């Protein structure tokens, strides 16, 4: 019986690359979403909520719930479950609305 | 604003899942100029979600049923004249005589700079469904994921949310999710279903007429048995334990109305929970254009469709889950039927009378089964007893059940729309897709007429810079 | 709790104006029944932005009503819970060029003469008030009396604040008016039965004309459609209610075609609201790309930073429009016992308290706080 999803489908992905999450290096494989790369690294939350400051991560996995919003290369509110990871991406935990620097 | 070449197309198909693929291919093979739009980089939709080509999966079918049907459609698509535009997120459709304008954002998540407008003489909506959720204490904790989401992340990302995953909720999707997760190496200690599994037995004729559905259930059942997954019907997860991520869940028995049976809670250790309560048709593009809807047997809103899949708005067609959740085979039949019907309307192709008769018969039979299935998994009103006053109902705006009850009991809200105005439930990023069914249920009054489906004029959030140029004057060919 | 038979007055419409009529009538000692076919704030109130403006009003009867309302809103903000999100944030009207700025100054001079506080802001000080404003504007006027409220919550809490003197009947539609053989009003017939009272207040907003017809009188209220755009949640990027000088001309226009000049404002919940277009299109809710395009273009022209954020949703509502842009407030001389409180177009939230105050005075035989002649429902 297969022990990992990759073994189950017989995946032999192209060479992996690195992205960072809050400065920590993690590995992603080509074509993988940012959320999948984070899950693969055992990371389930990458956002805190606006009101309660609670941790959130991917929920619906198909771009509908917007719970997986995250800041990628300084851009807030990207849906981690839809955006493909690219080599060198700097993913950072998004706090609240993610637009603090716009406040006046 | 970029306008695509070959415009206007005869037919724009929105959604490249089973229904959209079948419709696009059928219409193109009858001679129509077809454009196929989908948010994803690949065809297949949610059902035939698959790893990226760079994953070089030798056996993508290992996570799928009916892969051969998809492989066939994919081949016909490649051989057809259909223009497939991946990474196109449709945010609105408008009618500017004589054609429809389909307004799209582009890129993985619609963040690319360049919006696109596609013009077409007819539109086929094959936008599928998303999952229905019923809130319960702890459902916002990291590690709680939607059942469909766990399946989607597995199929495309080849990842799991944990090693020990409880699957819970209601509906036939749970069987498929539990068996995929187990096959991919997760331990699934329990599959928790709120309905009684015997519910289908009340509809023996529908089941007998759809033997492949019974066979599918058997296949999943056998797989679950093999993986040691324990089935608990008439039960629900009523609490999630853990501070920053899931450590355990409490599974409680339910009575026939889905009210928890006091004292029956059992704790199950796990590091993830995959949960969902059936599917909700994704119809906002259609309702924004005024298409008529009906309430399905499971309480969700679906489009009213004519015998040949046309909505109540002439020139706008729909297939698959948009007309009521019914599964992949129904979607394939409806998509093909719609493609043929659009071709006939636009005067292309030969008459396909016998095929139409065959498809209509097949569709009607499967619709009957879908209705029986939907009725069996309709949430019982007792689910509301799962909620504590401090349980978040709206995930985006963090609106608790207590605030919603206050709006209904003390502030004069009688429907989901007013609850939204008074509490912000449903006003956040997801626009009520996650909490909408629950809020509607909490707001409903006995005897009140069925509220219309929620209006979401923007199917996805739209950059202000895009809106500021969206009505630029009509197309010029590039 | 008073029963249906023991009401002194029936208010039709549980929107902001109806709530204010009920609140002040109850405050004057009357027992009030409020009837609405839907929910509290389910009509135009729920589709509004909560503008409490003096800045957009020409000197005249509407401005007098607005000034009284501004005072009453200040009182109400103390009496109602903070959740109504009353914010005395002030308005800032800006002009793109020197002729526009001159017109703005002239308008402000005339308003000042009518008692409005209006402070000229030269171009080089605009960014002190609004750091994200586009460069190159010619100047503006600051109106500290402009304010904002969350209309649905304000309505709900106003209805609650009067305690059991107000009885709510929701989900119940008025289908006719009851009159005695001598023609005096006795109450209303609804989808659920009869409700009796000697006075009926028409606070049915955009549907006020239909209600008037049930009483056999003509009130030419028409719906004037508006779209509001709502952005994703943001920190405070806009401090005041900000709009360009063209807005006043749009408000005063009777044109059937689309008028759009964006009023931009932040909200305590985070999203920025951008409203609102004005067009006569019946009760049609279909998305108008042209209206949204102009709102978005107007907003991003004033605040370029908004071009970088997303609109999450848009909603549409129907302003109750009367041809002379003044509401109908007071007794209907053609139908004894019937009073009107509708036709406020886009200013209903702001004008509601004064309207309710006037209606309560009319019901109790008191002296109105201002000349209500211009609002006479019989003027059409």
TrEMBL record, chain A:
<dbReference type="InterPro" id="IPR036010">
    <property type="entry name" value="2Fe-2S_ferredoxin-like_sf"/>
</dbReference>
<dbReference type="Pfam" id="PF13510">
    <property type="entry name" value="Fer2_4"/>
</dbReference>
<dbReference type="GO" id="GO:0016491">
    <property type="term" value="F:oxidoreductase activity"/>
</dbReference>
<dbReference type="GO" id="GO:0051536">
    <property type="term" value="F:iron-sulfur cluster binding"/>
</dbReference>
<dbReference type="InterPro" id="IPR042204">
    <property type="entry name" value="2Fe-2S-bd_N"/>
</dbReference>
<protein>
    <submittedName>
        <fullName>(2Fe-2S)-binding protein</fullName>
    </submittedName>
</protein>
<keyword id="KW-0560">Oxidoreductase</keyword>
UniProtKB/TrEMBL annotation, chain B:
<feature type="domain" description="FAD/NAD(P)-binding">
    <location>
        <begin position="9"/>
        <end position="326"/>
    </location>
</feature>
<dbReference type="Pfam" id="PF07992">
    <property type="entry name" value="Pyr_redox_2"/>
</dbReference>
<dbReference type="InterPro" id="IPR007419">
    <property type="entry name" value="BFD-like_2Fe2S-bd_dom"/>
</dbReference>
<dbReference type="InterPro" id="IPR023753">
    <property type="entry name" value="FAD/NAD-binding_dom"/>
</dbReference>
<feature type="domain" description="BFD-like [2Fe-2S]-binding">
    <location>
        <begin position="393"/>
        <end position="440"/>
    </location>
</feature>
<protein>
    <submittedName>
        <fullName>FAD-dependent oxidoreductase</fullName>
    </submittedName>
</protein>
<dbReference type="InterPro" id="IPR051691">
    <property type="entry name" value="Metab_Enz_Cyan_OpOx_G3PDH"/>
</dbReference>
<dbReference type="Pfam" id="PF04324">
    <property type="entry name" value="Fer2_BFD"/>
</dbReference>
<dbReference type="InterPro" id="IPR036188">
    <property type="entry name" value="FAD/NAD-bd_sf"/>
</dbReference>
<dbReference type="GO" id="GO:0016491">
    <property type="term" value="F:oxidoreductase activity"/>
</dbReference>
<dbReference type="InterPro" id="IPR017224">
    <property type="entry name" value="Opine_Oxase_asu/HCN_bsu"/>
</dbReference>
<keyword id="KW-0560">Oxidoreductase</keyword>
<dbReference type="InterPro" id="IPR041854">
    <property type="entry name" value="BFD-like_2Fe2S-bd_dom_sf"/>
</dbReference>
TrEMBL record, chain C:
<keyword id="KW-0560">Oxidoreductase</keyword>
<feature type="domain" description="FAD dependent oxidoreductase">
    <location>
        <begin position="8"/>
        <end position="360"/>
    </location>
</feature>
<dbReference type="InterPro" id="IPR006076">
    <property type="entry name" value="FAD-dep_OxRdtase"/>
</dbReference>
<dbReference type="GO" id="GO:0005737">
    <property type="term" value="C:cytoplasm"/>
</dbReference>
<dbReference type="InterPro" id="IPR036188">
    <property type="entry name" value="FAD/NAD-bd_sf"/>
</dbReference>
<protein>
    <submittedName>
        <fullName>FAD-dependent oxidoreductase</fullName>
    </submittedName>
</protein>
<dbReference type="GO" id="GO:0016491">
    <property type="term" value="F:oxidoreductase activity"/>
</dbReference>
<dbReference type="Pfam" id="PF01266">
    <property type="entry name" value="DAO"/>
</dbReference>
């Amino acid at each position: 019986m297969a022990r990992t999803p990759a073994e189950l489908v017989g995946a032999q992905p192209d060479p992996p690359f690195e992205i960072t999450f809050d400065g920590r290096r993690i590995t992603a494989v080509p074509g993988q979403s940012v959320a999948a790369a984070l899950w693969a690294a055992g990371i389930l939350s990458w956002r805190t909520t606006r009101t309660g400051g609670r941790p959130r991560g991917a929920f619906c996995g198909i771009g509908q719930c917007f719970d997986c919003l995250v800041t990628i290369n300084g851009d807030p509110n990207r849906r981690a479950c839809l955006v493909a990871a690219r080599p060198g991406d700097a993913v950072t935990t998004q706090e609240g609305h993610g637009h603090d620097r716009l406040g006046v | 604003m970029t306008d695509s070449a070959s415009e206007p197309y005869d037919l724009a198909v929105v959604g490249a899942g089973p229904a959209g693929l079948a419709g696009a291919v059928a219409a193109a093979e009858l001679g129509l100029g077809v454009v196929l739009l989908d948010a994803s980089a690949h065809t297949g939709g949610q059902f035939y979600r698959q790893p990226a080509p760079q994953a070089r999966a030798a056996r993508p079918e290992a996570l799928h049923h009916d892969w051969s049907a998809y492989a066939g459609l994919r081949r016909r698509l490649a051989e057809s004249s259909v223009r497939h535009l991946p990474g196109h997120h449709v945010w609105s459709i408008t009618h500017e005589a004589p054609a429809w304008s389909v307004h799209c954002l582009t890129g993985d998540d619609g963040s690319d700079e360049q919006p696109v407008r596609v013009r077409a003489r007819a539109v086929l909506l094959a936008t599928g469904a998303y999952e229905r959720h019923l809130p319960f204490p702890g459902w916002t904790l990291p590690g709680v994921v939607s059942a469909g989401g766990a399946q989607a992340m597995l199929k495309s990302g080849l990842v799991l949310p944990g090693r020990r995953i409880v699957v819970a909720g209601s509906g036939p999707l749970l069987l498929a999710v539990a068996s995929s997760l187990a096959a991919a190496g997760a331990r699934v200690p329990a599959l928790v279903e709120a309905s009684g599994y015997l519910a289908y037995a009340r509809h023996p004729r529908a089941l007998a007429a759809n033997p492949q559905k019974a066979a599918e259930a058997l296949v999943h059942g056998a797989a679950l048995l093999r993986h040691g997954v324990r089935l608990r019907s008439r039960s629900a997860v009523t609490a999630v334990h853990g501070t920053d991520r899931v450590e355990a869940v409490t599974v409680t028995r339910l009575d026939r109305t889905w009210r928890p049976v006091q004292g029956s809670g059992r704790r199950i250790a796990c590091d993830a929970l995959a949960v969902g309560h059936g599917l909700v048709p994704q119809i906002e593009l259609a309702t924004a254009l005024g298409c008529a809807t009906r309430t399905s047997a499971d309480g969700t809103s679906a489009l009213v469709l004519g015998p040949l899949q046309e909505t109540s708005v002439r020139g706008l067609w729909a297939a698959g889950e948009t007309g009521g959740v019914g599964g992949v085979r129904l979607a394939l039949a409806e998509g093909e039927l719609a493609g043929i019907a659009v071709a006939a309307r636009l005067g292309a192709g030969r008459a396909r009378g016998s095929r139409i008769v065959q498809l209509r018969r097949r569709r009607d039979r499967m619709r009957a089964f879908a209705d029986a299935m939907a009725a069996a998994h309709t949430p019982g009103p007792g689910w509301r007893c799962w909620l504590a006053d401090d349980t978040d109902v709206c995930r985006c705006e963090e609106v608790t059940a207590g605030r919603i009850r206050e709006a209904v009991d003390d502030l004069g809200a009688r429907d989901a729309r007013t609850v939204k105005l008074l509490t912000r439930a449903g006003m956040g990023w997801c626009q009520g897709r996650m909490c909408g069914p629950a809020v509607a249920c909490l707001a409903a009054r006995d005897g009140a007429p069925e509220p219309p489906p929620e209006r979401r004029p923007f199917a996805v959030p739209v950059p202000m810079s895009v809106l500021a140029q969206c009505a630029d004057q009509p197309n010029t060919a590039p | 709790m008073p029963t249906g038979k023991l009401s002194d007055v029936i208010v039709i419409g549980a929107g902001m104006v109806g709530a204010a009529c009920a609140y002040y009538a109850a405050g004057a000692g009357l027992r009030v029944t409020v009837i609405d076919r839907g929910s509290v704030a389910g009509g135009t109130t729920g589709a509004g932005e909560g503008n409490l403006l003096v800045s957009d009003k020409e000197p005249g009867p509407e401005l007098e009503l607005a000034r009284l309302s501004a005072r009453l809103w200040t009182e109400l903000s103390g009496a109602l819970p903070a959740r109504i999100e009353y914010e005395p944030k002030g308005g800032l009207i800006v002009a793109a060029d020197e002729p526009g700025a001159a017109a703005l100054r002239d308008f402000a001079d005339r308003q000042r003469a009518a008692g409005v506080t209006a402070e000229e802001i030269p171009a080089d000080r605009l960014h002190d008030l609004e750091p994200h404003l586009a460069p190159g504007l010619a100047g503006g006027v600051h109106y500290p009396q402009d304010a904002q409220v969350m209309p649905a919550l304000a309505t709900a809490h106003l209805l609650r604040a009067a305690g059991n003197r107000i009885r709510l009947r929701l989900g119940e539609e008025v289908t006719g008016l009851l009159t005695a053989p001598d023609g005096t009003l006795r109450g209303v017939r609804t989808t659920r039965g009869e409700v009796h009272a000697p006075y009926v207040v028409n606070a049915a907003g955009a549907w006020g004309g239909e209600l008037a017809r049930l009483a056999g009188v003509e009130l030419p209220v028409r719906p004037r459609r508006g779209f509001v755009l709502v952005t994703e949640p943001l920190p405070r990027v806009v401090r005041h209610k900000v709009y360009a000088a063209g807005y006043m001309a749009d408000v005063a226009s009777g044109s059937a075609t689309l008028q759009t000049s964006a009023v931009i404002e932040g909200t305590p919940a985070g999203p920025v609201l951008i409203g609102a277009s004005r067009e006569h299109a019946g009760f049609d809710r279909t998305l108008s790309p042209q209206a949204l395009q102009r709102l978005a273009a107007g907003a991003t022209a004033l605040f370029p930073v908004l071009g970088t954020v997303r609109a999450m949703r848009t909603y549409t509502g129907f302003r109750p429009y009367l041809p002379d842009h003044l509401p109908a407030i007071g007794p209907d001389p053609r139908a004894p016992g019937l009073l009107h409180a509708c036709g406020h177009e886009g200013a209903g939230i702001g004008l509601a308290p004064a309207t309710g105050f006037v209606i309560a005075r009319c019901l109790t035989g008191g002296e109105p706080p201002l000349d209500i002649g211009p609002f006479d429902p019989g003027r059409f």
